[in-house]
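#onboarding

Welcome to the new folks! Below is a worked example of what a typical request in this channel looks like: someone posts a single protein sequence, and someone else replies with the predicted structure as tokens. Don't worry about understanding the tokens yet, we'll cover that in week two.

Example request:
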Amino acid sequence: MKNKKIWLIIGSICFLAVIIFVIFAVTHESDPNTKLTHLKNELQPKQKLESKQEKKTQKDNQLQKQKEAEKQGQADQQVREAFESALQKTADFFSQKKTNFVAIGDSLTQGVGDVTNQGGYVGLLDDTINQDKKLATFENYGKRGNRTDQLIKRLDEDEIAESVKKADVILITIGANDIMEVLKENITNITMSVFAEERVHYEDRLHVLFDKLRILNKNAKIYLVGFYNPFEQYFQDIDELDEIVDRWNATSRKVVATYDDITFIPTKDLFHNKSNLFASDNFHPNIYGYELIAKRVLTYITQ
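Example response:
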């Protein structure tokens, strides 16, 4: 009887020990503090590594931005130096008599993209020629979006017609919106042939434009500023668009060659592969692009 009680006591003690062990084991394993500490120990080296990589990436980005800024600064300086070099003989050329400039055309004449509000290439010409003394007057009739047909109609406006009659020099930018119109009307079926067909009509309209200008003014020197490839910033790998611009510029040259005292001024080469010359819309020139146009125009006028 005593032995039976002794074994019962021993069994109870063993059972209680097992229960205590299980409770301890489960409680210890599920302790959130213990798990959190273990997790921290695992993550700490990774976090340090990621932190170092982030710092290195930030440093690399800063260096890249600094290099780009230096490159941009060098390009800007080259543009300004080139523009300044064209000013040396300008004052002497225009000091002989007061010259009346009239600028007509599209957004390039208006100066769209020049966030400095200097008036684009026409404004820069004004500031340059009249830098020390009033040597010339400038009237700007640029209108964003104008095509050749619209510009022809605007010559019937009394104010523009009177200005053209008194002009010594007439500056024109026109044609880019004619190309854009072809793109808009044939957006679902763009082919080289549709541009070729419209180029014939563009040629006819240029003749009408120049004939109308000559009726208003027989003696003024007229300069048609050619257009660069405005699509290069959007479609860098489409050679056909570059070819279209070349052919339309060639048509402009062809028409100009049939008139006396009308000159074609190329600009396409100024903007080729030079993204730093474009405004934020990647279509119109920025102030540096307009400076190059102004320099090119001055060079032709003063030759």
